[in-house]
Amino acid sequence: MPPAPPRPPHAAHRAPGWLWPFMLLLGSTTLVVAWSSLALASGYQHGWMALLAALEAAWMLRLGGMRPGWPRRMTALAATVVMIVAVQWLVAAGHIGAQMGLAPWEAAPKMGAFYVWTLARLANTWLDVICLAAAPLLALRIAR
Fold first, then answer.
1. What residues contact residue 108 under an 8 Å CB cut-off, 6+ apart?
2. 77 contact partners, CB below 8 Å, separation of at least 6
3. Could you please report the per-residue DSSP string of 79-116?
4. The pLDDT value given to residue 9
5. Fewer CB within 10 Å of terminal CB in the chain, N or C?
6. Chain-centre distance of CA 106, in angstroms?
7. How many CB atoms lie within 10 A of CB 45?
8. Average pLDDT score over residue span 96-100
9. DSSP single-letter state for residue 44
10. Which residues contact 94 (CB under 8 A, 6 or more apart)?
11. What gap in Å lies between CA 128 and CA 9, rounded to an integer?
């Protein structure tokens, strides 16, 4: 029996299709924790991290084996928006909860959306707002 032909060196290994949700969840959770910790420790919002969130979402979906196309692009966009909202919520909860002796995850469920929206509008600079608005568009663009 002849030996099997060697695999070409340029043939890429594909991740299984079920891996992308776990990778996206792990990467998104890690980025939300890092971004909110940085913002709470420094006192600044660090809106530029939203661009990293977009890159991370697209990268995790690609590495996780999700097929290219509109579903992957829309998933990256949605994941980026969820990360932005989660960070804004946790940072506001961290600042307000600290005054009451609560951790951010303890104060977050007690805060209403309008209150978080008001605090986020007051805390974000114009550069933060530009980055927060550009991040979902970046995710949509690069997650092909």
1. 89, 90, 93, 97
2. 136, 139, 140, 143
3. HHHHHHHHHHHHHHHHHHHHHTT--HHHHGGGS-HHHH
4. 61
5. N
6. 21
7. 23
8. 95
9. S
10. 36, 39, 40, 103, 104, 107
11. 44
